[in-house]
Amino acid sequence: MARGEAPERNAAGREGAPILEVRDLVARYGQITALKGISLTVNEGQIIALIGANGAGKSTTLRVISGLLRPATGDVLIQGRTIRWATPRAIVCMGVVHCPEGRRIFTRLTVLENLRLGHYTRGKTDLDPAMARVYKLFPILEERQSQLGGTLSGGEQQMLAIGRSLMLRPKLLLLDEPSLGLAPLLVQQIFETIAEINREGTSVLLVEQNANMALRMADRAYILETGRIALEGSGPDLLANDAVRKSYLGEL
Fold first, then answer.
1. Helix 111-118 to helix 154-166 angle, to the nearest 10 degrees?
2. 1 assigned to some structural domain
3. pLDDT tens digits for 183-236?
4. Which of 131, 125, 206 is nearest to 164 (CA)?
5. Is residue 86 part of a domain?
6. How many folded domains does the chain comprise?
7. How far apart are the first and last CA of the chain?
8. The domain that contains 90 carries what CATH number?
9. How high is the pLDDT of residue 7?
10. The domain containing residue 88 runs over which residues?
11. What is the mean pLDDT of the chain?
12. Are the C-beta atoms of residues 209 and 250 closer than 8 Å to each other?
């Protein structure tokens, strides 16, 4: 695989039933309308990319899905069941886990303690297999398990944030800017891991600044502009779109 290329993925089985449906979603912060009626779908087994400029509403979309922000109107369904009024804990228990922008690890806790906190809703049930899976994906975390989170490198902290999100073996993983601030080699590693997570059966809704990598690995993508979906289509189709190439890929 050439440097900077997204991992190749098996396209078979990408037309499963919808695991996530966002319908005509409107969300506000006070008097500011951040989302203006967006709709999107993630099918079982898919990686869906959500790209756009800063302030377009990408992170707000994930916050609504994970229950951190109540929608003004519209609905969010997980496997056909509305979660509009569900608490964040209830949404996690339904298999939807949000890995937020900025890593948000517990810097004064060890790697092991951070991972165990990711498993808190299940207590000790299946803790060891969950830990083993994370260590298989990120061997460096096993080596650093006694180290405080705040002493890890930026790349290791991102691995820990993703690993903590995987401790409950989510059906749907919401990833917000996983490559932000990382060196190119680490970006490649993170994307390879996202592909592996997906191959193991977890659907992914990916918010990502690296539009080129995101579109190359996505089954489908949505482009947000000022709270509205401006374009949608398969990753390859959007990569070939002249407007997308100019605005988001830095090509003329």
1. 30
2. no
3. 888 888 899 999 999 999 999 999 998 898 899 999 999 999 999 999 999 998
4. 131
5. yes
6. 1
7. 26
8. 3.40.50.300
9. 60
10. 18-248
11. 90
12. no
